[in-house]
Design goal:
CATH topology of chain A: Arc Repressor Mutant, subunit A
Strand order of the largest sheet of chain A: 1-2
Low-confidence stretches of chain A: none
Distance between the termini of chain B: 78 Å
Mean pLDDT of chain B: 83
Number of domains of chain A: 1
Number of strands of chain B: 23
Mean pLDDT of chain A: 87
Number of helices of chain B: 27
CATH architecture of chain A: Orthogonal Bundle
Largest interface: A-B, 22 and 26 residues
CATH superfamily of chain A: Winged helix-like DNA-binding domain superfamily/Winged helix DNA-binding domain
Oligomer: heterodimer
Strand content of chain A: 5-15%
Radius of gyration of chain A: 17 Å
Largest sheet of chain A: 2 strands, antiparallel
Helix content of chain B: 40-55%
Shape of chain A: globular
Chain lengths: ~110, ~850
């Protein structure tokens, strides 16, 4: 099982959350909203493409719409493997955060 | 207006759509446009357009790197499959790769040599501005480089375009330090020499090096020889009976320089003949100003020699330094061989590539199912093409590594054959060309199989052996036949070439030269011996192993000096003549030592006291050139019409004999008598030549103790005249062998495939009563047909090429039919042996084995 990268994890969780509306535009908007930084279209597309090729996401196409210049949307949906990978990374992260010793960081005055 | 401005920027869209492929393109353009529409609604068109552009620039690198990443993953996959296929069919892979490797090694070696040849004299700074002044003779037509000594200085003075000029008078001279002497190759030059050429000085300063006229500059090698580890600068050497001081050390001259010397001395201390306009014996080199037009300068200086001397029959012109080694002045030269071998390299590589094409299309039939299944499972044609191309490229890269290994192994022997300093070189340029060669052969040899194999219709491929598959197969078979025929034509072409070269070289070796060249040794003595030479000769003759001896003024092999007919006159000279006549001075024993024959009259004889002063002997060619009917007793005037005219009487005509390269016709010649000269030509008894040589050396040492002993055997010297031809011969032989070998590898592979395919047919034939020999005949018939066809194709081309090559020789063999027949026979024999290995195995196999699976 591949360990998901942070952006891959974010993308997959967004796809999960958006349910029926998970295509490029809302995915990007949501990630920008949550992270607060500007992600370019390419920066979202690349992990999406990778996740599809790994089989963690599956795609379907809509009919063409007017505001897209007569082009169709590609909707994403989690697959079983995708879910498993997400669970895995969640477990890894939870475990890593568990019972960390106290860290004495000197705060800047 | 609104309508136009409602769309996203066109160019940006175009950019995006060209960095993405297939479905992704549409989807992403859609995403882009949706955002764009939204921003336009909120902030207007301009903002939206700027946003769009920004996004495009941010995203495109990501799109590209993503694509590259995934195609690399694909290539990894292709390679994995390719390695599997390679392991699957080992015989095929071995044949393929070894063929390619040999071909590539051959090509790399040839390229190394070509690069070496092309590098001649290129190491000088400003090599492009350096020229050698050359002469174009009118009468008879020809070219020369030997010019009057004062020319260089005159050119430098009189022409502003000529920045620098130097004379260059090469000469083999004796150098002595503390009683140790060596003959070395040196040259008289002017100080400008160091400004024109960039031979690096290890010690000494180019500006002041020849300030003192008794200076000498020697190479590092010579310095080691004389002085060992000591610093040679300031040391004294004896040169031409006087002392000269070493003022500089020059780095050893690289082999790819046409100027080769061990030492340089100032021009002023040279001979009188090097300072007069009426003697042609010196080279002149010039360096032009930066933007000077060499043609214009050539025009300007063309009549310089004519201005300074009467009877001058040549124009001057500039010959570029870069061309001196490669291009002979009259056309041709070394460049011909560069072309020939480059073409050969391409041919050999072609033959190896054809192997690959043939074997992979032949093997395709075994892979029909694989391809069919792949296609049914959704492989696209481009994917299959990539798959096959990566297979061939993998093959060619493995072959490249083997080839480099082979090359490294072969280079020492190639260097000793060619006398070159070639070495494998991994500079960026060479690495690029190695990879280039591998890619080129890979793509070239893989392209046809890739297109052919990927083009199958899956249904036809999977359905079975009938229907459209057999159509595909017959087309492939036709192509394969064509390629094999082509391959064999090339090999046969090479075979004919090598047969013709061998025959011509044999002819040259065994041709009756008109004299007995065996065991003739020529000893070159220094000037000091000249007075005593007859004494030495007589003492040498006391040794019974020395059968005969003669003294001559000039070497017997080199042309020596020659004179145009306008300086000669004879009884009955009338009308137009145009020829050069050679001259030499010899003593009484010349005829007997060389075992020459007289055509008419007699040779110089002790019985005629007037001979030394009045007589001369000519050869048959001279009689013909002078158009004399009755030459005996006719008058012959040398330097006719000048103060130094020498009237002679022709007392005999020597039958034509050839001491020259057989490239040329026998030239007209005359001999005068002399009692002294620096060349001693001795006829040795066949056995114990080394003892005789020792004897000669000791005898000469008695007279001049510190003279180095220098000699050569006449037949060695003669052989060296055909050095290029012998090199071409031996190189061509190797290349031919390789070409034939690679062709045979291919044929072997093809035969094994065709036998494999017909296993069942053979089984059935045998069951029905065919004998083994009938089966062998059946299988070899096809290949025989191809080879015969290849012969028919190769013959005209080879005839043409051989004819062209033989034009270089005045004495040549006819191109006889048997060469072609022999080549045909050889090629057929080789092909049959190769094929029969396979077919005999198939024919003797028990039919039960081949049929039991049915």
């Amino acid at each position: 099982m591949k360990i998901l990268s942070r952006i891959e994890e974010l993308v997959m969780l967004t796809v999960w959350r958006l349910e029926e509306n998970a295509y490029g535009v809302p995915i990007r908007k949501y990630i920008i909203k949550v992270t607060g930084s500007d992600w370019s279209i390419g920066a979202i597309y690349v992990p999406l493409d990778r996740l599809v090729k790994w089989g963690y996401l599956e795609t379907s196409q809509s009919d063409p719409t007017e505001e897209r210049g007569g082009r169709s949307k590609r909707y994403y949906k989690l697959t079983a493997e995708g879910l498993e990978a997400l669970n895995h990374i969640k477990k890894v992260e939870e475990f890593m955060w568990l019972d960390l010793p106290h860290l004495a960081v000197e705060k800047e005055k | 207006m609104r309508q136009i401005h409602s769309k996203p920027p066109r160019i940006a869209q175009w950019l995006v759509s060209h960095t993405l492929k297939g479905e992704d393109r549409d989807i992403l353009l859609g995403d882009f446009e949706e955002f764009f529409t939204e921003i336009k609604k909120e902030a207007g068109f301009l903002k939206a357009a700027i946003w769009y552009w920004k996004q495009v620039f941010k995203s495109i690198p990501l799109f590209l790197s993503n694509q590259i990443y995934w195609s690399l993953i694909m290539i990894k996959n292709y390679l994995k499959t390719a390695v599997r296929n390679l392991k699957n069919d080992k015989v095929y892979s071995v044949i393929n790769i070894s063929g390619l490797a040999i071909g590539m090694a051959c090509t790399i070696l040839i390229l190394l040599w070509v690069q070496y040849e092309l590098s001649f004299d290129q190491f000088h700074n400003n090599a492009g501005r350096i020229y050698r002044v050359s002469a174009h003779y009118h009468d008879p037509d020809g070219f020369g480089q030997y010019l009057p000594g004062p020319l260089a200085a005159y050119l430098k003075e009189g022409y502003p375009e000529i920045l620098d000029a130097t004379s260059y008078k090469p000469m083999a001279m004796k150098l002595t330090v503390d009683n140790r002497s060596f003959f070395s190759q040196g040259s008289y030059v002017q100080p400008s020499f160091f400004k024109i050429f960039s031979f690096p000085l290890l010690k000494g300063d180019a500006e002041t090096i020849f300030l003192d006229r008794y200076s000498i500059v020697i190479t590092d090698e010579l310095a080691q020889k004389f002085f060992g580890q000591e610093n040679p600068v300031g040391k004294t050497m004896t040169f031409m009976g006087g002392d000269v001081k070493v003022t500089g050390i020059i780095k050893n001259i690289p082999k790819n320089s046409h100027l080769q010397f061990d030492f340089l001395v100032p021009y002023e201390i040279g001979f009188y003949s090097m300072r007069i306009w009426s003697n042609n014996s010196v080279f002149s080199y010039v360096k032009l100003a930066e933007h000077a037009d060499s043609h214009a300068v050539s025009q300007k200086i063309s009549d310089v020699a004519k201005k300074h001397r009467q009877n001058c029959n040549y124009d001057l012109f500039l010959h570029p330094l870069a061309k001196i080694h490669l291009y002979a002045l009259g056309g041709g030269g070394q460049i011909t061989y560069v072309y020939i071998f480059t073409i050969m390299a391409v041919f050999v590589l072609l033959i190896a590539s054809i192997n690959f094409m043939n074997l992979s299309t032949a093997r395709a039939e075994k892979r029909f199912k694989e391809i069919g299944v792949k296609k049914v499972l959704g492989s696209s044609r481009p994917q299959l093409i990539k798959q096959f191309l990566s297979e061939s490229i993998l093959h060619s890269f493995i072959a490249l590594f083997l080839a480099l290994f082979l090359t490294a192994l072969l280079i020492p022997s190639v260097n000793s054959i060619l006398n070159t300093p070639l070495k494998l070189n991994f500079s960026l340029m060479w690495i690029c060309s190695f990879i280039g060669i591998a890619l080129l052969t890979g793509v070239f040899s893989g392209s046809y199989p890739a297109l052919y194999l990927s083009g199958f219709r899956p249904l036809a491929v999977l359905k079975g052996p009938f229907g459209s598959r057999s159509k595909v197969r017959s087309r492939a078979t036709f192509l394969r036949k064509t390629l094999v025929v082509m391959q064999f034509s090339l090999s046969i072409f090479f075979i004919i070439g090598i047969l013709a070269i061998t025959r011509q070289m044999n002819y040259i070796r065994t041709i009756n030269l008109g004299y007995d060249k065996d065991y003739l040794v020529v000893v070159k003595t220094s000037g000091e011996l000249r007075k005593n030479i007859q004494v030495i000769k007589n003492e040498l003759l006391e040794n019974p192993a020395i059968l005969n001896a003669t003294v001559s003024m000039m070497s017997l092999v080199d042309w020596g000096s020659s004179v145009t007919d306008r300086h000669l006159s004879w009884t009955g000279k009338s009308g137009e003549y145009s020829f050069m006549m050679g001259q030499n001075f010899v003593d009484y024993d010349f005829l007997d030592t060389l075992k020459l024959q007289m055509a008419q009259g007699r040779f110089f004889s002790r019985e005629f006291l007037s001979d030394p002063k009045e007589a001369c002997v000519v050869n048959e060619a001279a009689v013909k050139a002078m158009r004399m009917d009755e030459p005996l007793g006719k008058k012959f005037y040398i330097n006719a019409g000048t103060d130094s005219e020498r009237p002679k009487t022709i007392i005999g005509v020597v039958k034509d004999f050839n001491t020259q390269s057989l490239h040329k016709e026998i030239r007209p010649f005359w001999w005068e008598f002399t009692n002294s000269g620096s060349y001693l030509c001795l006829k040795l008894q066949g056995r114990s030549t080394s003892a005789s040589l020792k004897f000669i050396e000791n005898k000469i040492k008695e007279f001049v103790p510190d003279d180095p002993f220098s000699y050569y055997f006449l037949d060695d010297k003669l052989n060296s005249l055909y050095q290029t031809e012998q090199l071409t011969g031996s190189l061509t032989r190797y290349i031919t062998f390789l070409a034939v070998f690679i062709s045979c590898l291919g044929l072997f592979g093809l035969a094994s495939f065709s036998v494999e395919r017909r296993t069942k047919e053979i089984g059935i034939r045998k069951v029905l009563g065919s004998s083994s020999s009938q089966v062998v005949l059946l299988l070899t018939k096809e290949f025989t047909k191809w080879v015969l066809m290849a012969n028919v194709l190769a013959w005209p081309a080879a005839y043409f090429a051989v004819n062209l090559w033989l034009k270089n020789f005045a004495f040549k063999t006819a191109i006889s039919v048997w060469i072609f027949l022999l080549a045909a026979g050889l090629s057929l024999l080789i092909a049959l042996i190769t094929v029969s290995l396979q077919s005999i195995r198939a024919a003797t196999a028990n039919p039960v084995d081949s049929l039991r699976y049915e």
